[in-house]
Each structure stands twice: as structure tokens, then as C-alpha cells.
Amino acid sequence: MKKVDLAIGIGGAAGQGIATPGDILARIFVRRGLHVNAYNAYQSIIRGGHIFLTLRTSDQPVLSHGDKLDVLMPLNQDTMNRHLKLMPAGSVVLFNSDTIKPGAVPDGVQLCPFSVKALAPTIRGDLVQNTIALAAVLRLVKVEFEILEEILTLQFKRRGTSAVAENVGVARTGYDYAEAHFRALPFSLPDTGKPLAFFEGNQALAMGGAAAGVRFYCAYPMSPASGVLHWMARHARQLGIMVRQVEDEIGVINMVIGAAHTGCRAMCATSGGGFALMTEALGAAAMMEIPVVCINVQRAGPATGVPTKTEQGDLWQVLGAGQGDYPRIIVAPTNIVDCFRIVPQLFNLVDKFQCPGIILSDLLLSEGRSSIDPAELDFNVPIDRGDVIGLNGDGPPLHGGFKRYLITESGISPRALPGTAGYAQVVATDEHDEDGVLISDEFTDPHKRQAIHEKRMRKMEGILPLLAPPELHGAAGADVTLLGWGSTEGVIHEAIQQLAEAGVAANNLQIKWLVPLHADAIVSILATCAKVIIVENNYSGQFARYLRSETSFVADGHIRKYDGEPFMPHHIVDGVRAILAGSTKLYVPMHEIQV
Fold first, then answer.
1. Tens digit of each residue's pLDDT, the chain (595 residues)
2. 9 with 52: CB under 8 angstroms?
3. Are residues 589 and 561 in contact, defined by beta-carbon separation less than 8 angstroms?
4. Which residue, among 526, 528, 536, has the nearest Cα to 575 in the 3D structure?
5. What is the reported pTM?
6. At what angle do helices 128-140 and 161-181 cross, to 10 degrees?
7. How far is residue 258 CA from its own chain's centroid?
């Protein structure tokens, strides 16, 4: 049972310093051992527009950014106009009354105005209101001022003692003003005594790469994948990773393939537009049987689309990435810890099967932030490089020539690192025989083409048994099963809790491994379910189509969202109710606020 479930919304325009109070609040919460989930709805312009950060904390794991707000901190009039009308009874709104005026106030909402001119008359700068509001929030939830003082001291010490004194003094004023003038919220934040970590999905993907032994990383900056590059660049020297920012995504993927060919674990990340430029080279990696890992962080498309909004719209893009048939592994992590764990596991698989691996994340997961128990992050993961000759010195003596693409029952041929004595090899993107000799240069031999093509594709048969099949979350025999993939797991689980409170029993089957797909296991589970509703963040039901193409399974209903914003729990709850009532088979929720 939750003792506390607090959601804080901070809104304003780009350039108003919204991230700083959010980061400070998150740091305070996780230091107390409280779980945190944060989602920032922002625009692609550098200054202006509307940005809204939702920060939710609880003594229990926080599965999504939720449905409600307890505290609103509007930093400009636009945010007040957009969000005040949706504040529930019992919530509070903290704002600078010098520049912001409330409109009609919903019943039971406590307005908490403060005057920056009155509280900090000698201090210049637009960010003073942020510090006052931050301190006031902490007083409303009964957090000791000394904790904020410590964090502000750490944050501003680089700017000298006068900056520290100024910011701590402003915060103290705001804290004392709130104590004297505002009614505190009817709970306090406990301290569990077990501090948690707090970071975003992109950082988890980067750390997963470091744990996997990545030694080469390159990228062209493209939101929302740039966070992986930022983390790698920041820690490259310390970790011994070569990091390069390349001129475009074609250069990126070819550099990654080149690095991987030498025996180095190599990785890159981009979004759908950049991934489109990589697809021919991914096929080349498969043809040359070179293991690489590419991360596609999905955003709303098509084309440049909505660069700072989330979507699950690239599934069919990665399923068809590159011409022809070739072996590949595609995985969609379901949460931020999964982002970390999946990278070493995928590298072991692509090394073993000598093929490309694709991680299909999205903005919600990669730029969303969550509290993590540090014990869940194991950097001493097992490393399996597969059958690599010369990795630890020269290979065994050869009897006859080295057949780089030797036809085997498993489809896996021994791989030799370039430069290994006695193991000369030809590597090219044309079709070839076992020796690597291009069959199109000699003559197109149908028997050789068929044999080598079947050899490559046989790898897929060995991958599936190594992957954990999906499992049903929740009780069997439920009224409805919510089927999702990737990042929708958390919000689906929270919707299941809300449905249970409303008397509807629901469970969840969440798919992580997309290629190869556990088709038989999925069909076996779904055959026992009363009603199945597929939940996904795209217009056309891409996973529903993929599942139908692989299994012939047709769901009873669909809940789809494609307005650029992620699902909130009530979107799924409302959709389930409408579908169960028979009023529709396709429910499309719309975000309530124009962000």
C-alpha cells in the first residue's frame, strides 16, 4: 500500500530553467529512498514554446508519470492557462504573482501566490522565482530545509561563496514564506534509508554498452538518441572507449562495421530518420557476418516528424531494414533497467551469431528518467565473444585454406580477426562462396548462392532457444489481457491496478524480443485469454499487423495513441471499458493538454 504518491508539474517556456528545480527535487527524493518517474514534454525550438515536466514520487515503484497533479509550478502565464483547469481538489498551485494571474480556479484547489519583488527585491534574474517555488514545494511536503541547502551549496559552489549564499538565502525566504502563508499537503515524504540512483534510459543504454565491453562508439547527433552520445563522450577517456561524432549516419554505420570487423565491440545510436540511412549497411554487416549493435530511439514520424515527441512507429522500418533476407536480432526494452541489461545480452548474441542487432527504444523510455536500485546494475556481466580465432593471440594451425564462410549445420562459421597469421580472408558485400570469393565475379552459381544464403539464415533457428519467452503478468483467467511491446509496460501495469479497483480483472503480456519472435509461446498464452486488447503508440497498429503476419492471431480490440504524447493510465482504462462495452474495437485517446 502506498504511503505517498506525489506528482509535481513544472511548466514554462524553453530557457526558463525548468530542468533545474526538477533535477533538485528528484535528487532529494531518491536520496530519501523514494521512487521517482519523470517525463519532460518539450518542444524542438531553443527558446519559447511550452515545456512541461512531470515528476512523480512514491515509496513504491512508480510505473508511469501518472494521471494527476498534486502541485503545479507555472513559471509563465501560458502554463497557468493550460493546466490550472485540470488541477484536482486538494492540489496546490505555486506561482509568482508579479507576472502570473490565475483564471477560474477549480473547487478545492489552493492557490499559493508569492511576490518575487517582495521576497527578493535586490536579486536580479528570471530564475529567482524557480528557487522560491522549489523551496515552497519542499515546505508543503515537510522536507527539512537543510537538505535543500546542502544540494544548493553543491550546485553553486563552482560560482563561489557569494552565489551559494545568495541562492540559499532566496530559498530560505521562500521556505519560510510558505510555512507562514500556505497550507501544507496532508502527508509527509518518508525516508526509507536506502538511497536510489536516478537516470534516463539513454544513459542506461550507454552504461549497458560500457558493461558489455564496447570500445568504439560513434553517432551523428539526432534527438532523442543524442543522450547516448553525450554519456559516452563524457566518460570515454575514463573507460577507454573511442567516441566519434561523424558527419552523417551513413558514415556512422560504416565506421561501426569497420571497427567491429577488427574484433572490437562497436555500437551506434540514432532515430528513425538516421536509421533510414543505415539500412543498406546493416544488410552489408549481415552479408559479411560482422556483429554490430544499432540503437533506434523512435520519435514521431514520418520524415523529421515531431522531433521531440514519442511514438512506436518504426517497427516495420526495422523489420524491413535493408534489401533482401538476412539474419538480425531486434529487441524492444520495456523499462530503464531493461535498457541497461539488454545491451550486454544483445552483444553476446550478435557476437555468437555474427549478425546485426537492433535495439528499438523510444523517446518516452530513452529521455524518460526513473529511480533505480543500484543493486540492479551489474557491470560484471558475462562476456561471450563466440567463435573468434585470434582474439587472444594467433589461431590454431590450418590444414588447407581458411574458409571464412564455412557452411555449417548451425550456420555459424569460425571468425578470424584480420591480421591473424595464416587466416587470410576476403570480405565483401557481394554474395560469395565459403572462401569469400564473389560468385557474381566468377559466374552466378545458383547452387552456391542457395547454400550460402541458407547457411546465413539458419542462424535464426539457434537464437530463439536462447531468449526468455514472454510471460503473463497478473492472474490467469482475467476479463481482459492487455498485449503490449516495449515501453508501454509500466503504464499498462498501472492501468491494470486501476481496472482492478474498478472491478475489472486484467493482465498483461509484454513482448520484448521482436525478432526472432516467440510465436508459438505467444499464441499458446493468448489462446487461454478471454479477450485480448493490443496497446501501442502508433496509428496503424504495427505490432498487431506483425503478430497477425507471423501467427494469424487477431485481437478483440486495439488502443492506439499517436499524438506525440505517451499513454497515461486512464487512457488505457477508458479504452478497455469502451471495448468491453462493445462501443468500439479501436479506441484512440487524445492528450488533454495542448503541449
1. 668 999 999 999 988 889 989 999 999 999 999 999 999 999 888 777 899 999 999 999 999 999 999 999 999 999 999 999 999 999 999 999 999 999 899 999 999 999 999 999 988 777 799 999 999 999 999 999 999 999 999 888 888 888 899 999 999 999 999 999 999 998 889 898 899 999 999 999 999 999 999 999 999 999 999 999 999 999 999 999 999 999 999 999 999 999 999 999 999 999 999 999 999 999 999 999 999 999 999 999 999 999 999 999 999 999 999 999 999 999 999 999 999 999 999 999 999 999 999 999 999 999 999 999 999 999 999 999 999 998 877 777 776 789 999 999 999 999 999 989 889 999 999 999 999 999 976 678 899 999 999 999 999 999 999 999 999 999 889 999 999 999 999 999 999 999 999 999 999 999 999 999 999 999 999 999 999 999 999 999 999 999 999 999 999 999 999 999 999 999 999 999 999 999 999 999 998 765 5
2. yes
3. yes
4. 536
5. 0.96
6. 50
7. 27
CA distances from 8 to 55, 65, 103, 255, 292 (A): 5, 10, 20, 43, 41
- Rounded to 5°, angle at Cα 588 from 585 and 592: 150
Report the alpha-carbon angle 106-109-111, nearest 5: 110
Taking alpha carbons only, the member of 353, 372, 333 closest to residue 410 is: 353
Which DSSP category does 376 fall into?
G
State the maximum Cα–Cα separation within the chain, in Å, rounded to a whole number. Answer: 88
Q: Under a CB-based contact definition with an 8 Å cutoff, are residues 481 and 510 in contact?
A: no
The C-alpha cell at 570 is 486512464
Alpha helices of 502-583 — where are they, by DSSP H? 519-526, 542-551, 569-580
Residue type, 25: L
Provide the 3-class DSSP secondary structure of residue 555: coil
Q: Are strands 369-372 and 48-58 parallel, antiparallel or unpaired?
A: unpaired
Q: Report CA-CA distances (Å) from 30 to 21, 197, 337, 338, 370.
A: 14, 7, 16, 20, 10
